[in-house]
Amino acid sequence: MLSAPLVLAASFAYLLLLFGVAHFADARGRSGRSVIGNAWIYTLSMGVYCTAWTYFGSVGRAASSGLWFLPIYLGPTLAMLLAWPVLRKMIRIARQYRITSIADFIASRYGKSRALAALVTVIALVGILPYVALQLKAISSGYALLTATPGEAHGGGPWWRDSTLYFALALAGFTIAFGTRHLDTSERHEGMVAAIALESVVKLLAFIAVGVFVCWGLFDSPGEIFARAAARADLKPLLGLGGESRFTGGQWFALTLLAMLSVIFLPRQFQVMVVENVDERHVKRASWAFPLYLLLINLFVLPIALGGLLHFGPGGADPDTFVLSLPLALDQPALALVAFIGGLSAATGMIIVEAIAVSTMVSNDLVMPLLLRRRQGTRDLSGTPLAVRRVVIVALLLLGYLYFRIAGEAYALVSIGLISFAAVAQFAPALLGGMFWKGGTRAGALAGLGAGFALWTYTLMLPSIAKSGWLPTAFMRDGLFGLALLRPEQLFGLTGLDSLSHALLWSLLVNAGLYVVVSLARAPTAGEAGQALLFVDVFERSGTGAAAAPVFWRGRASVAGLQQLAARFLGAEAAQRLFANVARQRGVDQIERIAADAQLVQHVETQLAGAIGSASAHAVVAGVVDEEPLAPADILRMLDEASQVRAQNRQLESLDKLKDDFMSSVTHELRTPLTSIRAFAELMRDDPAMDSEQRQQFVALIVAEAERLSRLVNQVLDMAKIESGHGDWRNEAIDLRELIAHALQTTREAFRERGAEVAVEQPDAVPLLHADRDRLLQVLLNLLSNAAKFVPPGRGRVVIKLSSDARAATIEVRDNGPGIAPDQQQYVFEKFRQGGDAANRPQGTGLGLPISRQIVEHFGGRMWLQSVPGQGACFGFDLPWHHEQTAS
Amino acid sequence: MSTSLRNQRLLALFAVGWLLLNFPLLTLWDSGVSVAGIPLLPAAVFIGWGVLIGVAAWIVEARDGDGDG
Fold it and tell me: Which of A102, A223, A415, B33 is most exposed, with the fewest beta carbons within 10 Å of its own?
């Protein structure tokens, strides 16, 4: 036995440790060095799945039915295999739309329905409250066993002397301190998550410690336990599946399915897995590491159960307490205390997270809607959501305590674990269906959930209450109104199933059936269709920035009205910050100048959703804006617009990249001549005795490079001018024959040096063309000097051909140079992409051809290149006689 | 590895897991034989469970080229 003060001191010291860890993690989180941004912490926080019910109860279950405790953990293992496709999608949706609870998730999917949010909250509350009571009972009876004060186990003493009450209050304090820190519940509770991860480690280690003690301390090895159990007729069945009933397969299946759904839909699981998730990629690690955690914590369940049964003999001790009573019976008080702390961590972890999750739901989806109905107007409510949440947490724990005091050992409490699971399993059709099927409607979800919940109540909850003696059992024996078909555990005459499988079958069947049938009865409204798209296609509609997400809203709103609304719920300061941010993002200098468009309305609503839930946020925003109803066709149109915006964004991005490439090319091209100029200048500076001939040569090189530099700068400026549409264009009558003659005159020296001959083929007369003579000359000179550069020295031949037809004049410049490879041809008109590789390409800026093409295109013509490698290149352009002068 | 391939593998593993850890395949192990002192059924379930976890770890932790994978 341990002294009561010792156990109490250890327990409260443990709670203090939790406070310390949570405080540390919160402080780290605030200073930007989060400790929870880690896949292992995320995985451990999921361990909140293992409550006191499993910590103590698994052994009890194993002691009575062998391996039948396992489906509760195999289900989550299977569920986690699908975590990457399914859970990641839930996380993405919740992140995108600031969803903070499972009620919010379902309500938001079906057009932000308040009714649906309230229904989900009620189901969660009814299912979870007794579960909280069960945790308190586990703490209480563990404490009683440890200190040998049996009276307290059943809440026998006066309430003010019951340490369980003070535990409950301490937990409420912890939850309020670390669970209601921010108004915005979509912000993570770092301290809470860190504490929960620690609790998962503590309970795992404590349970393993007991297991190791039983296997190798109490007995010689696990083998000995199994061998001795196999030798006993009453224990042998526990080593197998037991029972020859033909329905055991169905029950195993039902339990697995139930646990599979619960691991996602229990409010505490949704909280740690979805709301508190820091990074989607952590799901990868968790999808195998969390099952591994479950495997480890279950490894010693069967040995402990069998060991206890062997040690105490039949009826010797309650198997639910073996984890504590075995160390106690063998005079290992320290180990017993460790085991108790492990159980305490399992219970407190569950209570804390469940309290946060449920209080968010109750506050956002039950209390706030009522408050809002009563207090319309503009009063500041910014403190209200937090205050409500805190009150709900205290109330939840006190109600749990009350339930525990009243129910005590009753059947309703002992069996509540699976009953709770069955309650939250009702969320499955509406939630999973809503994530993958666009056709689900609000009416379908309401019908399915309502019917599922009613059947759950009738076939599972009421019988458990009746078995506790609080209801006459007549209705179970004879059915409601004496109708045998309505017997709750053999509904419509379905017999042969255990009560849980029976209830699960009926409730899920009717739930899913009504969800589908009612949904299909009519087409979704615009609101539902919009939300369906946002949920089902979340991966297609997120990631490229919030601006790209479609906004299904049309109407009139005022910035002042929205700001006032935000101030009412978030506080004036936070609202000011919110709108100032929007103003900055949109590049306007004053909040008043923000356009009150659909995006703004959506943004404000999403921000409010983090504080008061999406259904309430939608309702209050609808109160201050003038929304026009949408038709399904509008949704499609808005979707189109959104994808256009996305396409434009992508285009802008690629333009941005082009500009960057251009800048880097320009600097590169400028650096080359600058480097030579500097090198030659430095040579001359460092060698005053350099002979004048060499000096002259260097100076000539410097001049040439400087010329190239200025040509380059001019061309870049030219290019920029043309591209931006600010070029000066003259419009004069030009005789193209004269223009060609002029160009030839200018380039004659270049051709002569190269030893190339130039021929001109042209008609005797061509009409006058209206264009900018200097620009056209620039084009022609560019083509000719290019040709001069590329023809083979000494035997070059260049042909200029002018022709004209009714539409346009065409000029071609053909050379007999090496030609341009087909894969290079597409690049010659791009800036800085000279033909050939960088090593042997001739001097040039790489801007000549792009500028030429711009000029030709300015006058409505085209420029092209025809070339077969080895047979020369032919650059040509045409200029229409008449074209619409562009505005520049 | 592409998301689609990973998802298909996980889905297949999920199906295998359902079959392996459920009736009627579970009854195959319920034979009363012991392996190294441990009855076959619990040993088989825990080993099967562990293998499932190992394969899942291999599938999800595989390096991917596309980042989103």
Answer: B33
